[in-house]
Amino acid sequence: MWAGAAGASDALAGDWTGYASIASDRIYRGVSLLDSGPALQGGIEGVFEDRFVVGATVANIDHQWLYEYRVPQHVELNLYGGIDLACGANCRLRALVTGYVFPGPKARDWQEASVSVAFAERVGATVSWGPDGYGSGNSTRAVEAWFAQPLTRLTSVEIDAGEVWLGSRDYWYSRAGVSHRIDRWVFALSRYWSDPNYARFGFDDRSRRYVVSISMAF
Questions:
Q1: What is the pTM of this model?
Q2: In the predicted model, is pLDDT for residue 170 greater than 70?
């Protein structure tokens, strides 16, 4: 009985990790969500039985993906859960359901399902779908891909790009960056590009910029 209770306790404990970061902007899928000031973000994730995963992230923002939707409390909370499995010797597969929560009467919460695959922690891709993505009330899809190349044991370059479909409309975005790790700290510089046809979505072009960030894992 005691052995069974101990095993249940270990399963509930899981393997927890987390991070905290500060950056000069918060850009999500090509869209800047912060009007001014530093972008603060943190997260925590637990893995259970080497296959089930739950987590949460929190960040300060001024508006949602659609610029007309302001966030009065300046907070975005993301809650997610799903599975994370090995799909080969150097392959990981992750399937998640994520809820995006924005406090305040005028904000629009939304949900999304996603499937990701990563090979040797060097290259990966994600496909996402939501029935009311970005608070738009429309079915949305997103496809993203990334590549990381170590330059030294502590320094690497990263490239990622994606495309979002909002109903029958779409736009692309991309990022190139370099990061350097010192113990648990990661210092990064990224350059973001976005579709020049943002005007048809009612966005400005502030997302085409450099972003510096510092993060710490715990």
A1: 0.89
A2: yes
Contact 101, 78 (CB under 8 A): yes
- Distance CA(129)–CA(141), nearest Å, equals 5
Q: Which amino acid is at 82?
A: G
Mean pLDDT of the 94-109 span: 89
Give the integer Cα–Cα distance in Å for 190 and 124.
19
Q: What is the CA radius of gyration of the chain?
A: 18
pLDDT average, residue stretch 136-149 = 94
Q: Tell me, what amino acid is at 112?
A: E
Confidence of residue 82 (pLDDT cuts 50, 70, 90): very high
- CATH architecture of the domain formed by 15-217: Beta Barrel (2.40)
Identity of residue 98 = T
Enclosing H/E stretch for 5: helix 2-13
Give the C-alpha separation, 26 to 60, whole Å: 8
